[in-house]
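Shipment paperwork, digital attachment
Item: protein structure file
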Amino acid sequence: MKLSNNYKRFVFIPSILSLLFLTSCWSTNEIEDLGLILGVAVDLEEEKGQEGENVITLTNQLATSNSSNAGIEGQGTQQNAYKNVSETGSSLMEATRNSLLEIEEILLAHHVKVLVIGEELASTTSLQQTLDYFIREHEIRQSCQIFIAKERASHILETSEPSVVPSMKLAQMTKAHDRNSKILMPIHLSKLNRKIQSDASFLLQNVISDQGEMKFDGASVFDGKTKKLQGLLNKEEVEGVNWITGEGKGGLVKSYVEKKSTPIIYEILSMNSNIQPRVNGNDISFDVEIESEGRIGEQKEATSIDPSSNETLIKVEENIEEEVQKLVKSVSEKTQQEYQVDVLGFGESLRIEYPKVWEKVKKDWDKTFSEVPIQFNVNVTIKDYGTLGNK
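Attachment content:
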């Protein structure tokens, strides 16, 4: 269809005029001038400031031109895929501003993956105070993950592998939670802030640097009132935590049919827990029902034990249940008697089931929790024993 000249002018003239109102990217910066922060570590120094205040070291891990090739086989070079920049100050904001004295790039914190806090700082300073800067800073995403370093936090952001970015590797390692019950479910800044605001006690994943290799190593226990690190749980106790909370998704349990027999490895396919509070007048107690389905994943040596027989399966299931009982009792007794804090979710269950009772006890719940009886019932079902069995 042929368009009239009037119609052409009607379309053409407004299009030309609209160009006058378009602006170019006049306020942008070249990517080479940007310092993308991928991870942050915070440490407490031994020396004091001029006025006796604490001195904090802030370490920012910046991406380099090699970061895009990090973790790709054959793409590593002798130049590190990251650059760490550390600066001190009496506050995190002061340390951040001091770092600008030696960094030519424009720092951007939108891509921070992990925040690592040194054990000494977490033990002596309220975590609420330490995180205040990061919660207020609008550039830092609330989805960044929080960890506690059992040494200096800055050591976690170092590696001898030039093609590896420690911050990105640490963030990826938490995905193993689905297959290993000795790892806590990842906790992000937003979720941790809610816990802090509620005055509830909580756990954070520990990480260590072993000859340049980062590893998860238990968890740190934080008191809900002081917001300070109160104690540590080992890897087996973290395993018990995941059984009680039901947050574990996978893992292994070593079992023995007989005392001197070779171990049979139970692979967890599912893990569920139900914490049921009981209230009788002023007395509070808990029943915890734990259920798991799994399979026999490995038998260390060929023996006369036939894992496919019903008798053997029943024995293995009973022994696995005993092992799980040991794990959950160990961590519940430690949190109740030694640390006297509830980091296992019992208070939350009481709040949901008995809100009026919770209102009466929530102010001093950790102390109350340390005295309440807890009964565990574990039920394990082996759904699959593989294709191997004695003929």
